[in-house]
Amino acid sequence: MLESIVVMVGVFLIAFMFAPVGMGGGMLFVPLLHYVADWPIDGTLLAVSLTLTWTVSIGSGLRHRREGFHNDVAIKSALYGALIGALIGVGIVNALGDGLDSVFKLLAIVMLIWALNKTWKKRQKPEASDENGEEGMDINHLNLRIGGSIGGALSSVLGVGAGVIYVPVLQQQASLGPRTSIGSSLAIMMVVVPVAIVALLTTASNGLIGQLTSLPWWIYVLPLLAITGATSGAKFGIERISKENIMNIFMALVAVVLIRYILDVVSIML
Fold it and tell me: Is the pTM of this model over 0.70?
């Protein structure tokens, strides 16, 4: 019972914290289920994490769209690569099988270091204005789609929304401001994540659907907590947190998760 309570509280808080920064929370949903609920890193865990990530992206993404923080041209361009990448990622998950755990953690470390580096460099340059959410007319479509494909693949392999990839890519390759890149990232997730979920459910060879139906509590309770946390977190973030602090929170959360995975990999090696 205590374990379930910790997981439920954790899901709500993760959704609340990640919603304002354009991330789905999968980077913390996975370790929460892995370390607290003692789930192995496999297709089941990834599907659950992606489902929670999707609910976060919906709750926060719709709020950002209502506020005008989105760029549909950049979103559509990135989706060309992201959808293909998500399907490739599912193929990688199925091919790795039992070897997914170690590959997962190493990939997560590389992704997080990349995101921290890109976000830090972006902060050193003058920021684009995002007062009306329509900046970013100078879009590098090729690089945006390549970045989207990387995000889509990592979304499937790591069970994340890949906002940690989409946000800096949208800022650099579409010249979007912080809030608009966040809203656009969430919009991409709302489309890509369900594709990854369906692909995982329909191609897994280990009875994934049967495993999920044996865990009915996550189907109803956890997604409800996630979307509630995301909606309230997005509202709080838009109204109360400055653009500079949005990026500070983004980097702090990424750094915490990065340290967690590095410690885990080091302990395995020792």
Answer: yes
